[in-house]
Amino acid sequence: MATLAAPPFRTGPVVVQPLRKKHCAECRSGPMGLLMLEEGAPRCLDCADLGHLVFLPRGDTALTRRAREESSLSAVVVRFNRRRSRYERQGVLVEEAALARAEERCLADAEARRRRRVRDARRRTAEDVRFTDAFAAEIRRLFPGCPADRARAIAAHASVRGSGRVGRSAAGRALSDVAVTSAVIASVRHVDTAYDQLLMNGVVRYEARLRIAGVVETRLREWRGEG
After folding, report:
1. Which of 63, 85, 137, 218 is deepest in the core (most CB within 10 A)?
2. Where is the DUF2293 domain (predicted)?
């Protein structure tokens, strides 16, 4: 009988997924889906004393690591890749009870991560509310004539997390006068003028801004209380 080259893995027992049909050299059972090489001869898992193990395919690194930690006996499963001329891992064989314990640990971690995400989301929401309140207060300080609900709307729009708007810029987070004023101007431009309609009619942005500049300045003076 021709011998088979053993795969070059040194992490405990190594089990092979054969590319061709093989029968056990000891009990003659087969063809085998998995085999172990002993002195170059194929053995079925039962003859190799690995028949009680279950196969865990590769893909979940944490589950694989924990299953091997929990299992007193485990084996690496490999298959030869002809194109690359090398053996490649396909998964592991572990004790069934060990796999169950590993799955429980991973589920517990997943639940812990879920709870952490919920806590983080609540914290970010609370931070966003505080920041929006502070931004609205700055609007009212700089533009005391701005209605409170409008100031709140401007602040909420400008400070949406991940929006890239002025409220989320470094200056915005610092509540600088320039950033707050920029947010107010943008709101006036879009809400209180024909700016959007001009853009829809094909007027270029710079020209559209020139056309509505007087309306914007009048509203800003009004909200500043300048008469």
Report:
1. 63
2. 138-224
Could you state, in order of their start, the residue ranges of all structural domains in the chain? 14-104, 143-224
Specify the higher pLDDT residue, 220 or 116. Answer: 220
Q: If DSSP codes are grouped into helix, strand and coil, which group holds residue 35?
A: strand
CB 200 within 8 A of CB 208: no
List, in order, residues 6 or more apart from 6 with CB less than 8 Å away: 14, 37, 40
Residue 36 backbone dihedrals phi, psi, to 5 degrees: -125, 140
Could you report the per-residue pLDDT of 12-27, keeping only the tens digit for each?
Answer: 789 998 888 889 888 8
Max Cα-Cα span within the chain: 104
40: left (phi over 0), alpha (psi -120 to 50) or beta: left
Half-sphere exposure of 149 (CA within 13 A, CB side): 0
DSSP for 98-145, written as a single string: HHHHHHHHHHHHHHHHHHHHHHHHHHHHHHHHHHHHHHHHHHHHH-TT
Q: Which two tokens stand for residue 104?
A: 């429980």
Number of H-type helices and E-type strands within the chain: 7, 6
